[in-house]
Predict the 3D structure of the following.
Amino acid sequence: MVIDEEDFIYTKDGGYLRRLIGKTGDQIQIGQGGTSLINSINFLPGSAGNSAVKINSNTVWNAGNDGAGSGLDADLLDGLHATASGNRWGVVPTVGSSGVLEAGKYIDFHESDSHTGDYNYRITSASGRLYLSGDLEVDGGDIYINNTNTGIKEGSGNSIRLQTNNGYIDVGAQNSSHAHFTTDRSSFYFSKEVQVNTGIIRP
């Protein structure tokens, strides 16, 4: 190892001198640019058990200590910020401490990894309403309006059951012969007169 009069530190290797540390103006330089003699600089840990390279007591993060499990905060994820008030589009959706997921105007579903279209199914939020681009199927549950006192369910014979806290009415054909209106109440009440084009109304 050689230290010259300008405080450059060199190592001699096969007749070549390599500049390791130097000073240009107010800048300290490590290594030497524009040479194939120095391919990389490797900072090696000592035996004290602390393998971190630090600058001003701050750990330098690298491919060896960064990534999953590091506990680091990242400002950007693939160039995008996390969603925040006043910045809801072109961001990464996050779940806040209250458990709320902040999403954008559209939610697009793709039914295969290789799908190249814009979406197979889309949910859109507009004017305080949700719009669905296709059918909606409810499996194993009911649809309630405001609360569980008013619901839409599957009734007898695949009919539609309109349920309230007082009873229900099933609407829909339950066989191939008739259209049905059935209820668990003792009678039907119509607030207006009932007109029948053909057929018989029996008391």
